[in-house]
Write a structure and sequence with these properties.
The protein has 378 residues and is of the alpha/beta class. It contains 13 helices and 14 strands. Helices cover 42% and strands 20% of the residues. Strands 5-4-3-6-9 form a 5-stranded mixed sheet, sandwiched between helices. Helix 8 packs across helix 10 and helix 9 crosses helix 11. The model has no long low-confidence stretch (mean pLDDT 93).
């Protein structure tokens, strides 16, 4: 399916060559996918004298998938076709001080219902709902969210959702893994096997893929790279740790760099992370000295943390994603590369590419829906 989405229209021989399967096996799988309604024959290709070959592509009228991105300030829902093209979307704001599980579940259900209505799709055609929650998701479907205003601890989110939408399968995961799957299928990591996708926002984390598959760890909590130590006796993080990567390259940490560089900076909006990060990006592009110092400092800290990751995991590619990376990624990338090159071992560094996320839509809801498709196929 990944090859079909990337390369359609294709013929069976193309699929066999690209995947390493035999033509017979590829043909059998194509027949299964056709029966499931996930792919369609859309025409024929001349074969140089033999029988014309059927051209294959994801079925536009096939089953539907839903992806949900829960962030600290919103719930974003999208409905997709089998090619993972967006058919409809809905979004509900989450108020900063009203994030009880019941309140969040209600917003998710409303968003799902709204998006389904917009897409004009019968619920029986939906393969499932992929939900990304910003925290740790246990193997039993419980969720722990460590956002400043949430204070969730082992909330039975999966069961709360299935009670409200009993007619649709629900898959629960976190944005680190959703973003990683989106990159593997649609982004900079397509065609790569060993990948690290670093989400930079209020919090910081790493989604990891090994041999083309997500690495989850023993308790489904792998990827807490943001809470690895960067500075001995450094800043205290929101989880109570000291000197974490997150406190130096997450949005609050970048704001602290700015406050330490220029306490009276007009770029600093103490109660608004987004406004501060956007102001820094604009000022850096205009050559503002304070903004340039903050960007350089952030890039150096991020480069050291990435060098540790390169030495530990030896990925083929590291992708920077998340709203902070969207705003500041191109500015910090030169400092990141220069610093990582200095601190990483030569051999793994030479085998690693560092890139910005190229996906021009919400990678988390896209990845959440793709996880549903992967689960269905497996």
């Amino acid at each position: 399916m990944r090859h079909l989405i990337a390369s359609a229209p294709v013929v069976r021989r193309d699929i066999a060559a690209a995947t390493g399967l035999s033509v017979a096996t590829a043909s059998d799988i194509v027949n299964e996918l056709h029966e499931l309604g996930l792919l369609a024959e859309i025409g024929q290709q001349a074969s140089g004298g033999g029988r014309p070959r059927n051209l294959l592509a994801p079925a536009i009228e096939g089953p539907r998938l839903i992806g949900v991105d829960i962030a600290e300030t919103y719930v974003h829902v999208e409905v997709f076709d089998p090619a993972l093209r967006v058919l409809a979307r809905a979004e509900y704001e989450l108020h900063p001080h009203a994030n009880s599980p019941g309140y969040v579940v209600d917003r998710i259900v409303r968003g799902v219902d709204d998006a389904i209505a917009q897409a004009q799709v019968e619920r029986g055609r939906i393969l499932g709902i992929g939900v990304s929650v910003p925290g740790q998701v246990g193997p039993d479907g419980t969720a722990s969210v460590f956002a400043p205003n949430w204070n969730w601890d082992d909330v039975p989110l999966l069961s709360l959702l299935t009670e409200r939408v009993p007619d649709l399968p629900v898959l629960l995961d976190n944005p680190l893994r959703a973003s990683t799957v989106a990159e593997l299928w649609f982004g900079a990591a397509r065609g790569r096997d060993d990948v690290a996708v670093l989400t930079l926002g209020t919090g910081v984390g790493a989604g990891l893929a090994v041999h083309g598959a997500l690495y989850r760890g023993a308790t489904n909590t792998a990827g807490e790279w943001g809470h690895t130590n960067l500075v001995i006796d450094g800043r205290k993080c929101r989880r109570g740790c000291v000197g974490c990567v997150e406190t130096y390259v997450g949005a609050p940490g970048i704001m602290q760099h700015l406050a330490e560089t220029d306490p009276d900076s007009p770029l600093l909006y103490p109660d608004d992370q987004t406004a501060t990060i956007n102001a820094l990006a604009t000022a850096h592009a205009a050559g503002d000295p304070a903004a340039q110092r903050v960007i350089a400092t952030t890039g150096q800290y991020l480069g050291v943390a990435i060098a540790d990751l390169i030495n530990l995991c030896n990925p083929q590619i590291i992708v920077l994603t998340g709203w902070v990376a969207d705003s500041l990624g191109s500015a910090v990338l030169p400092y990141v590369r220069a610093t990582a090159a200095r601190y990483a071992l030569a051999e793994p560094w030479d085998g690693t590419e560092i890139s910005l996320c190229p996906i021009d839509r919400n990678p988390v809801s896209l990845g959440a829906a793709t996880l549903v498709l992967e689960g269905f196929l497996s």
